[in-house]
C-alpha cells in the first residue's frame, strides 16, 4: 500500500512538473549568461571558465584522474573549493564513499567517491528530517574519473567538460534560485504545495570507466553503489517520497560533450518530452542568434521523433543503475561518439570551446525553465537591472 501511494504521488508530482514547466522569455534567453562568456564582447579572448589551458572551471580537471591517485584528489579539491568560493552556502555537499576491487588492481580496495551537491527550498531545510522526503529533485550528473589506460589519458570530453558544465550551471542559476525562494517565502506562496517542492542536485560520479574491459562488474563503480544506497535509504514514514531514488524527478546525464557537431539522439520515449523541451531551447537560442556554433544540424535534432522510432537501444553509462530502479533518464550523449573517444586525443586541444559555451547556455536555460526562474534571472543589459527583476527584489 505504501509503495502504491508513493508511486501515485511520484506520478502526480511529475505531471505537475510538466504542467508548471515555464519557458523563459526571449529577453531572458538573450541575457541568460553574463558577459564574461559572451563572445561578442571578446571574441578572441580565452574563455574565463572553459578555456582548456586557463579556464578556471575546466582547466583544473584536464589532468589524468584515476581513482585513488593524487591527481584524483586534486580534482576533488577543485570541486569543493569552487563550491565553497562560488556558490551560495545553502548548497549541501555530501560525499558518498565506497571501495571496490577492480580486475586491474587485484586485492587492493580502490576508493570511489561520489560528490553530491544539493539545493532544496529553504523551508524544506528548516523542517529538518521531516522535510527530507518532500522534495522532487532535478538531478544532473556526470562522471569525473578518467580511464586507467592509456597512461596519461586526460578525458576532456569524457567527462571533464560535462563536470565543468554542471558547476557552471549551478553558479548560473544560483542567485535566481535564492531570489525566487525568498520572494515565495515572503509571499507565503508555495510552501507546502507539492508543485513548488522542487530542488536541484548535481552528482559528480566516480568510477564510471572500466579498468580492464567493460562489464557489469568492471564499470559504473560509483553510480552502482549510489543507486543501491539510495534505494535502501528510507525517508520518514508518510513522506511524499519513500527514498532519495524516488525523489529524483529527472536524471539528466551528460557525457562525451565538448567536441564539435554533436548529434544527441532522444534515447527514451518516457523522457522524450524533456528532450523536446531541451531541443526547443536550442532552437529558440539559434533563432535569437545567441548561440555561437553553426552546426550542419542542431545538437538536438530529434524533436519530431515518433514513438515507433524508438528502437535504437541505449548507451551503457552511469544512468543504468538508476534506470533499472525506475528513475526517468534524459541521456545527453552524442551518437556517434566523438572520434577522440578513449584515445590520447581526448584532450584540451581537441575541444571546441564555442560548442562548450553553447552547451552552457542550453543547460542553464533548461534548469532555469525547470525551476521556474523566469523573472528572477539577473539582467545584464548594459549593466542595468531589468525592471521586472527590480520589482521582485523589492517585494
Ligand atoms: C569521502 O571522500 C572525500 C574525498 O576524498 C573526503 O574528503 C571525505 O572526508 C570522505 N568522507 C568520509 C566519510 O570518509
Ligand atoms: Zn569513457
UniProtKB/TrEMBL annotation:
Keywords from the named record: Acyltransferase, Hydrolase, Metal-binding, Protease, Signal, Transferase, Zinc
Record-linked InterPro entries: M28_QC, Peptidase_M28, QC/QCL
Residue ranges annotated for the Peptidase M28 domain, each copy included: 136-367
Gene Ontology biological process terms, A to Z: proteolysis
Family: Belongs to the peptidase M28 family.
Metal-binding as UniProt keyword: yes
Pfam families found in the cross-reference section: Peptidase_M28 (PF04389)
Protein EC: 3.4.-.-
Name of the protein in question: Peptide hydrolase
CDD domains: M28_QC_like
Molecular functions (GO terms): glutaminyl-peptide cyclotransferase activity; peptidase activity; zinc ion binding
Signal sequence region: 1-20
Amino acid at each position: 500500500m505504501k509503495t502504491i501511494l508513493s508511486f501515485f504521488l511520484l506520478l502526480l508530482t511529475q505531471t505537475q512538473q510538466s504542467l508548471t514547466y515555464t519557458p523563459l522569455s526571449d529577453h531572458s534567453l538573450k541575457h541568460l549568461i553574463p558577459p564574461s562568456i559572451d563572445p561578442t564582447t571578446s571574441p578572441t579572448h580565452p574563455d574565463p571558465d572553459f578555456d582548456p589551458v586557463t579556464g578556471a572551471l575546466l582547466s583544473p580537471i584536464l589532468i589524468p584522474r584515476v581513482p585513488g591517485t593524487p591527481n584524483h584528489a586534486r580534482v576533488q579539491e577543485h570541486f569543493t573549493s569552487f563550491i565553497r568560493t562560488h556558490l551560495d552556502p545553502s548548497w549541501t555537499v555530501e560525499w558518498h564513499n565506497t571501495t571496490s576491487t577492480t580486475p586491474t588492481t587485484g586485492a587492493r580496495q580502490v576508493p570511489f567517491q561520489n560528490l553530491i551537491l544539493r539545493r532544496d527550498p529553504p523551508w524544506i531545510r528548516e523542517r529538518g528530517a521531516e522535510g527530507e522526503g518532500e522534495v522532487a529533485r532535478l538531478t544532473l550528473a556526470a562522471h569525473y574519473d578518467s580511464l586507467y589506460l592509456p597512461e596519461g589519458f586526460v578525458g576532456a570530453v569524457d567527462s571533464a567538460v560535462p563536470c565543468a558544465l554542471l558547476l557552471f550551471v549551478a553558479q548560473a542559476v544560483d542567485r535566481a534560485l535564492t531570489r525566487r525562494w525568498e520572494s515565495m517565502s515572503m509571499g507565503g506562496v508555495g510552501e507546502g504545495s507539492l508543485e513548488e517542492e522542487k530542488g536541484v542536485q548535481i552528482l559528480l560520479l566516480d568510477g564510471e570507466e572500466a579498468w580492464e574491459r567493460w562489464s557489469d562488474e568492471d564499470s559504473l563503480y560509483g553510480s552502482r553503489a549510489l543507486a543501491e544506497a539510495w534505494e535502501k535509504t528510507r525517508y520518514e514514514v508518510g513522506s511524499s517520497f519513500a527514498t532519495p531514488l524516488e525523489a529524483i524527478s529527472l536524471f539528466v546525464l551528460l557525457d562525451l560533450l565538448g567536441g564539435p557537431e554533436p548529434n544527441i539522439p532522444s534515447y527514451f520515449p518516457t523522457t522524450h518530452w524533456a528532450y523536446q523541451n531541451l531541443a526547443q531551447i536550442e532552437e529558440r537560442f539559434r533563432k535569437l542568434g545567441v548561440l555561437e556554433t553553426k552546426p550542419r544540424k542542431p545538437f538536438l535534432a530529434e524533436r519530431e521523433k515518433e514513438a515507433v522510432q524508438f528502437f535504437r537501444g541505449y548507451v551503457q553509462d552511469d544512468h543504468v543503475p538508476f534506470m533499472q530502479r525506475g528513475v526517468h533518464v534524459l541521456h545527453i550523449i552524442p551518437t556517434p561518439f566523438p572520434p577522440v573517444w578513449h584515445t590520447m586525443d581526448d584532450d584540451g586541444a581537441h575541444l571546441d570551446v564555442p560548442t562548450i559555451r553553447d552547451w552552457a547556455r542550453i543547460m542553464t536555460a533548461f534548469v532555469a525553465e525547470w525551476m521556474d526562474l523566469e523573472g528572477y534571472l539577473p539582467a545584464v543589459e548594459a549593466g542595468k537591472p531589468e525592471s521586472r527583476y527590480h520589482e521582485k527584489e523589492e517585494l
